[in-house]
Amino acid sequence: MAETLTFNPSDDRRTRYAELLPQLRGLVQGEPNRVANLANLAAALRQSFGFFWVGFYSVQDDQLVLGPFQGDIACTRIDYGQGVCGAAWAEATSQWVPDVDAFPGHIACSSLARSEVVVPVMVDDEVVAVLDVDSDQLDAFTEADIEGLQSVAQLCAEIWSATT
Ligand code: SME
């Protein structure tokens, strides 16, 4: 397992995601524990981009339940279709929210969060979890973040299938 992440902070975001992805693969390679791997992915994303909050919610019956994360304490359960995370689950599509106050039903785990991206983790056409990333800045995310985080979610789906 790689113990450090290397990237050039002066590179643009798209390049940094491209630099990061193979390192994330290295980070999880050979580790059969799902929680351990998702915990390290959350930490790596926060460490690389300085996001306010990064974490996973997994589908358990009719709710999303908080999983590994980095950041302030957060809501533990989210109902189907509720908030940004529940919308990503119900619609099985990424949610890009430049201003959380403008998103009907946004769940404010922290009053400091201002913008948010949630990407579903899909296994066999089913949402098994969501990757949630929050910023304390308005409109902090770009197309490069959406695409980069979708690539990370794809890696999570591979991890999901290969771990318990
Ligand atoms: N804001 C999310 C809730 C989770 S926290 O941001 C960690 C939502 O509206 O679903």
State the major sheet. Answer: 6 strands, antiparallel
CATH topology: Beta-Lactamase
**Ligands, deduplicated:** methionine sulfoxide
Q: What is the typical, i.e. mean, pLDDT?
A: 96
User: What is the class in the CATH system?
Assistant: Alpha Beta
Task: Please state roughly what percent of the residues sit in beta strands, choosing from under 5%, 5-15%, 15-25%, 25-35%, 35-45% or over 45%.
Answer: 25-35%
Total number of distinct structural domains = 1
**Roughly how many Å apart are the termini?**
19 Å
Give the helix level as a range of percent: 25-40%
Number of strands: 6
Number of separate helices: 4
CATH architecture: 2-Layer Sandwich
The quaternary state of the protein chains shown equals: single chain
Report the structural category: alpha+beta
Structure report:
The protein is of the alpha+beta class and 164 residues long. Helices cover 37% and strands 25% of the residues. A hairpin with a 2-residue loop joins β1 (53-60) and β2. The longest helix is centred in the last third of the chain and has 20 residues, at 143-162.
